[in-house]
């Protein structure tokens, strides 16, 4: 029976495409709005693909951030200047300062707190950057800071099962009693299942299951409204 729920951060607890689109529109106003969602998905793909290079030191963090937007735009035959690409990260960082929780998420977290459900957060990324997002979203209202794990702070990244095991210790709960909710199949679904957790794939970007993988998750959720409905309905929890 599920006793605790742990969330991913980026594009799970807030809509990451909004600040991304804001930065793109500011810097590259001629980029087609109709292709914005597809561009964002490619941006996330390259971000996940090359993130470990910035951890191992093969690439600097600045190079990884530069390459993920350059490669994503190149997939759409959009080739800005080097200086424009270098400016993107600052514009994106600025837009991220204005992120807010969707009402469906804040309502769900409030409900879970009222039900005394233990909550946690596991996110990949640099410590300062992720802490800034956590602060902007005011997540400490619902999740205790010691129950929030940032990969760079502990030296373990999703999908490594060890980062999920660390959360088990912090929540004092067994893996079979924990549910993880995240948008990345590679990092969230595969990682949590490898740690023997239950998983809901929050696939609101309508991504395809990666080639060679199968539907190993307990639920696939396509929008914030359905996520709220499931989180506030105890009958929907795996037993």
UniProtKB/TrEMBL annotation:
Which SUPFAM superfamilies does the entry mention?
HAD-like
Cofactor(s) needed by this chain:
Mg(2+)
Keyword entries, A-Z: Hydrolase, Magnesium, Metal-binding
Molecular function in Gene Ontology: metal ion binding; phosphatase activity
One BP annotation, GO? small molecule metabolic process
Q: Which InterPro entries match?
A: HAD-like_hydrolase (IPR051400), HAD-like_sf (IPR036412), HAD-SF_hydro_IA (IPR006439), HAD_2 (IPR041492), HAD_sf (IPR023214)
Q: From which residue to which does the signal peptide run?
A: none
User: Record's NCBIfam families?
Assistant: HAD-SF-IA-v1 (TIGR01549)
Q: Which PANTHER family match?
A: GLYCERALDEHYDE 3-PHOSPHATE PHOSPHATASE (PTHR46470:SF2), N-ACYLNEURAMINATE-9-PHOSPHATASE (PTHR46470)
State what protein this is by name: HAD family hydrolase
Question: What is the source species?
Answer: Enterococcus avium
């Amino acid at each position: 029976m599920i006793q605790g729920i742990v969330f991913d951060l980026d594009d799970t607890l807030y809509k990451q495409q909004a600040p991304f689109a804001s930065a793109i529109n500011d810097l590259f106003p001629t980029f087609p709005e109709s292709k914005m969602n597809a561009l964002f998905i490619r941006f996330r793909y390259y971000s996940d693909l090359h993130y470990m290079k910035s951890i191992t030191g093969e690439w600097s963090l600045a190079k990884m951030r530069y390459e993920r937007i350059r490669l994503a735009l190149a997939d759409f035959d959009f080739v800005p200047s080097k200086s424009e690409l270098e400016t993107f990260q600052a514009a994106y960082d600025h837009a991220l300062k204005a992120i807010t929780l969707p009402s469906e998420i804040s309502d769900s977290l409030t409900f879970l707190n009222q039900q005394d459900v233990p909550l946690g957060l596991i996110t990949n990324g640099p410590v300062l950057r992720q802490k800034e997002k956590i602060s902007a979203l005011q997540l400490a209202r619902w999740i205790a800071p010691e129950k929030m794990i940032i990969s760079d702070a502990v030296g373990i990244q999703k999908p490594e099962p060890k980062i999920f095991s660390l959360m088990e210790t912090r929540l004092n709960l067994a893996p079979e009693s924990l549910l993880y909710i995240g948008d990345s199949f590679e990092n969230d679904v595969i990682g949590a299942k490898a740690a023997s957790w239950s998983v809901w794939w929050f696939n609101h970007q309508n991504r395809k299951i990666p080639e060679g993988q199968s539907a190993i998750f307990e639920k696939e959720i396509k929008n914030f409204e359905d996520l709220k409905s499931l989180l506030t309905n105890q009958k929907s929890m795996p037993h």
